[in-house]
Amino acid sequence: MATSKPSRVLIDQTMLCEAARLLSGADAPRIRMGHPLAWTPDTAERLVHLATLLDALLLYDELHVLDAQLPHDAGTLPLRQVLLDRRILRPVDTRALSANIADELTGFLRDAETFQEPWSPRGLASGEDVANSVRLLLAHPDESGESTNPRDRGIASIMRGEAEGDLSADRTWSSRPADPLRTLGWTMLTNIGYFHSGAIYGGVSQLRTFVYWRVSAHLRIPFLPSLHRLPAYHLITDHVRRTVQDCVYEVVADSFRTTVDEVYEDENPAPLYLPPALALFLNHLRAHGDIAMAVDDLRHQHRKLRRALAELQQSLESGSTLGDAKAARHRLNAALDALRGDLDPPDQAVAGTVDQLIDIVPGVVNAAAHPLDVGGYAEALVARPAEWIRSWWLRRPVRSAIRLSSRLDNLSRYHRLLGEATGQHVDPDRFERLRREYGAALTVYGGESRLPAAIPSPTAEPPEQEARARFA
Q1: Distance between CA 405 and CA 421 in Å, rounded?
Q2: pTM value?
């Protein structure tokens, strides 16, 4: 096979910078808007960010971030600079995306404004103002000219900063709503509408998640969300998959002249067992005290893993049948099995899956009307020519996913190693509290449901116990 194109993933600045701040012992930047920060990451959360970032370094050749959201202390963070110097970290120039994403957001929020009663105890923000703030942020206002609307500048300024809302403030529902995407939009406008309070940070957190979701769709690369962004991002993608997949599977089967069962089989995620990147990195850092050397060693030792994932994406993009896709997945599984055999010790492996996204492809739904109408998107998909459907199905971005509960279980073992390598200390019990906090949010936002069912880990509990224990 020819040299594979580099594998790419979009990460957010929160993950990158909080991981880097953990290693350098830096405090979170203070908010300069006159309001206290509702959410401040502690050491345990920063360790989750670092572990997720290191897994991305194992799996992907390039890590992309938005150049429009650059924290003011970014230049002082050694880990970030190491990744830039090695051209692993690639800033995304968002200027070409600003108009399209703002238009999508305008249509989406227009629906959200009328979704529930127009009255709110806080007052809804204007969807047009919010969309204009995103347009301003992504268009690089220093070059394109500032908006004359102080409201636009205020929201864009908060988005450009480091503030995130408190997770509990985002979780305003007691159960999953019937139309979660529009409910999320309404909640976003409600929080942002309460401008002169800390509630705006919760709305801006949701807005950032929306922007990352749409940037990843336009770039056709997967998005790996930070811990704080995970619940809302999962809500969006899970709702799209739930709504679209049943009708799409049938039309995909017709386009390939095969059965729905074969399409379901094609959708089965591949089991992924990653080496304990955090332990390897911290051990190296403890021994040598050099972040750059620790990154280089981690990348070099696991270059075959990145190559296997990149070759899967390239094989899928060059294939034309489900048989081609199945053969590509068999090659990936064989490579992953061989790499898994090299894990030492094997019980330290981090369990996850590899699959392909079902997402809203830009331009399929009329952008002038309802660009993110999920039901309309499914109808538009099935109306496409068979050749287009085959190409879209095979070329969907390949993504990796690690179950949050598994992640937190693994991290609770490393509190001593973290202290010895970085001088930072964390209470192991804090990971159990994180499990409860984020587990509750993920349960409301949709849990880990997926069709077909995810492949269980070798030590998986019986299904009824796993359902209860997953985010217990």
Answers
A1: 24
A2: 0.86
